[in-house]
From TrEMBL:
Keywords: Membrane, Transmembrane, Transmembrane helix. Residues 28-278 form the EAL domain. The keyword Membrane applies. It comes from the Bacteria. The keyword Transmembrane helix applies. This is Uncharacterized protein.
Length: 278
């Protein structure tokens, strides 16, 4: 069985999780039960981070990011509960809720903007489930949305279990008009060779390459390379984690189409995103 790591935020040790049931006692049982209660009592929320057209400055979409808020108002960060939920399988019901919620929210966003997309993060576990494609398409239909308004974000880990299955599934989604992007691009280990085989239409360059793009010429060179390659492959590019005006300007000069980051906006509740669109 595949091993997944989870790095607990703010601590230096790694926890090892196995996906199989017999090893699930390695998971922090308290956290797992607590998360189950959050799913059951609808204590999860989606926050939205705007995605910006770097040329025009307009909001063209938003990424849905899961939030788990405790009764005292504090948040447990996704980096802490998502890997745990992937290890226990709880990511499945949590994500079903998230896709449903995202479609509901998208409906409201589209009342303000005709062209607006919402992107949802997927985990490898969902991708290997039977009927996953049908389920997503059905949810889109139920909410009277068009497939073009939903975007699914994948990480390279999706390809690790069964890449043939993953490629076929990505193809089905693309043929149906659903946008597919590779998240955290550049942080995986086989970035270039598999990209050719992947029918995705967008790359999201990881924050690690954006952070020092102004001061480190090697990082700028990497981003230039990714942009040139994406152009050849007809893919859109989003730069993640833009925190300064200088980074935004440099990326625009380099021809990067889209950006996302604290410089533009932090993830926020739907009501606030709706106000941004007024
Ligand atoms: P991600 O999909 O790469 O999401 C981007 C993360 O970067 C978000 O963290 C966002 O708040 C953060 N970020 C955005 N702009 C900046 C910036 O300018 N500076 C810095 N330092 N950070 C920035 P968040 O919300 O904590 O999410 C962390 C990860 O958790 C996500 O990374 C994604 O992998 C996972 N995740 C979140 N929601 C879901 C979900 O619904 N399903 C699944 N499967 N994974 C999720
Ligand atoms: Mg993402
Ligand atoms: Mg990302
Ligand atoms: Mg990330």
């Amino acid at each position: 069985t595949a091993m997944t790591f989870a790095k607990r935020q703010g601590r230096n040790h790694l926890h090892f999780f196995k996906r199989s049931e017999e090893n699930s006692q390695r998971v922090d049982v308290h956290l797992r039960n607590h998360f189950q209660q959050a799913i059951d009592n609808e204590k999860l929320a989606l926050y939205y981070q705007p995605i910006i057209d770097l040329q025009s400055g307009a909001i063209v979409g938003a990424e849905a990011l899961m939030r788990w808020q405790l009764d005292d108002g504090s948040f447990i960060p996704p980096d802490e509960f998502i890997p745990m939920a992937e290890a226990t399988g709880q990511i499945i019901p949590a994500s079903e809720w998230a896709i449903e919620q995202a479609c509901q929210d998208l409906k409201l966003l589209l009342e303000k903007r005709e062209h607006m997309s919402v992107s949802v993060n997927l985990s490898a576990l969902q991708f290997s489930r039977a009927n996953f494609f049908e389920q997503i398409i059905e949810t889109i239909k139920t909410h009277k949305l068009s497939n073009e308004n939903l975007e699914l974000e994948l990480t390279e880990s999706i390809l690790m279990d069964d890449s043939n299955h993953a490629i076929k599934l990505i193809e089905r989604f693309r043929n149906a008009g659903v946008a597919m992007s590779i998240d955290d691009f550049g942080t995986g280990f086989s970035s270039l060779s598999y990209l050719k085989k992947l029918p995705v239409n967008k790359l999201k360059i990881d924050r690690a390459f954006i952070q020092d793009i102004v001061s480190k010429s090697s990082d700028e060179a990497i981003v230039r390379g990714i942009l040139a390659m994406a152009r050849q492959l007809n893919m859109d590019v989003v730069a993640e984690g833009i925190e300064t005006a200088e980074q935004a300007i440099r990326l625009t000069e380099l021809g990067c189409g889209y950006g996302q980051g604290y410089y533009f906006a932090k993830p926020k509740p739907l009501t606030e995103l709706l106000k941004d669109l007024d």
